[in-house]
Amino acid sequence: MKLSGSWITAPATQAVCAALTEAGHQALFVGGCVRNALLGIPVGDIDIATDALPQAVMQLAADAGLKPVPTGIDHGTVTVVSDGTPHEVTTFREDVDTFGRHARVAFGTDLHADARRRDFTMNALYARPDGTVIDPLGGIDDLIARRVRFIGDGATRIKEDYLRILRFFRFHACYGDAEAGLDPDALAACATHLGGLAGLSRERVGAEMRKLLAAPDPAPSVAAMQMTGVLSTILPGADARPLAPLVHLESETNTAPNALRRLAALGGEGISDRLRLSRAEARRLALLRNGASSTMPPAELGYRYGVTDGMDMLLLRAALLDTPLGPKASETLERGATATFPVKPADLMPGYTGPALGQKLQELEDRWIASCFTLSREDLL
Fold first, then answer.
1. Residues 122-170 pLDDT 10s
2. What are the structural domains, with CATH classification, of the chain?
3. Please, which pLDDT band fits residue 103 given cuts at 50, 70 and 90?
4. Whole-number pLDDT of residue 97
5. Are strands 85-91 and 47-50 parallel, antiparallel or unpaired?
6. What is the dihedral of CA 86, 144, 185, 212, to 10 degrees?
7. Peptide linkage before 355 cis (omega within 30 of 0)
8. 3-class DSSP state for residue 75?
9. pTM over 0.70
10. What is the DSSP string of 237-282?
């Protein structure tokens, strides 16, 4: 089996491989780039595994006219920039001792040992510079079956880095077969080791949850998180039930996935702090939740919040209440978003000034909104 695509044949990428192979070392594409290429989806980051030691990678890259950056050299990773494209080059590794995310690693030359320390079988796929695929642990079969499975013992993999619990659910949402369900052994391992999640930084948890909720359909994964206790551990009070209706409504309305909209559907206590949301994210999350729980009709939501936020609020409201969106919701929302209140402050002056002016404007605006924007300036005055 061979990979193909412009990413692998790019001169910049082949130059990185040549810098290693021409010195007698291995250069093997690994992980996400191989997985995505086999699935026929876009390749993002390019990771390369090698038996060359990190200092040798630095020297060979410099000798080839490339730019080596020691981004994680203590753990064997050197970023090699070739024609402006970064390539993460990491020496084959084997964990000697693990302490959660922190591990003492030994560099080596054994591809199988390197593969065994990775998280999922579909991520332990390698490819030579010519695209020939190497599958040391049977990852291709799992990838074809859309089966996310830990390498070896799931508990061992999780204890190496407890974030792998969340990664398991995210990978199922992105690459798994929803009809086949989640791997039962992996689910059992996740449920057994929930305690390790408390030691993760909130930044890492938040980043992982954003990625999970941005998947095309994260509902089955999040439901499984709730069933195993993972969801309540990282986000107490959250409820997975509105997520499936929301994803369905998004599909019906051709609305692109949005992690914050979906997070608003889940709810929970202290979301902003627990997931380390930015201030802008926290404000928008509160805006969406408040709008969805209000009694404003679609036209008023459109007028007050615009089409984008207004539609998010309508989708959330329908999902939370488990009700249809309404056949003309989008049209009504659009009408409200384009409406312009016909009365200006000057129209009420000098009869009204100060707080009385603001109160009168608010009163007239409320009447105008209640009329579905039909009252004219003359009607209101």
1. 999 999 999 999 999 999 999 999 999 999 999 999 999 999 999 999 9
2. 1-138 (3.30.460.10), 145-234 (1.10.3090.10), 241-339 (no CATH), 342-380 (no CATH)
3. low
4. 61
5. parallel
6. 50
7. no
8. helix
9. yes
10. T--STTHHHHHHHHHHTTPPP-HHHHHHHH--SSHHHHTT--HHHH
